[in-house]
Design a protein that fits this description.
Blueprint (H helix, E strand, L loop, with lengths): L1 H9 L3 E2 L3 E2 L6 H23 L2 H47 L20
Antiparallel strand pairs: 1-2
InterPro entries: Cox20
Organism: Cynoglossus semilaevis
Subcellular location: Mitochondrion inner membrane
Amino acid sequence: MAAEDEQKKEKSFKLLGILDIQKTPCARESILHGAGGCVAAGLFHFLATSRVRRSLDVGCAGFLLTTLGSWLYCRINNAKIRVQQRALQEGLKNKILYEGTGMDPSRTPDAGKASGAP
């Protein structure tokens, strides 16, 4: 019974046999957005022109453009988040390292003096 559960967990959906949807970041959302873009572009073109073959071509182009656009947008946002996380981790590491020393950036040199003393 446990072996069957592990096999089900290990199975993943591969698109065209090369792209593992569950392990690739942003892939699932991009494919779903592309499918919606495909239907919308093809349907609107068909309603406007009543040309079936051209509408299918427009739908395929809509799928490609929407999928690529969504994937690029998601990957760029993920990269920005990773950069912010790295900077935050570095800042926390420096705070822990320098806390309580003379190089502590949160300490000011005038903190020990009274406000009225020269």
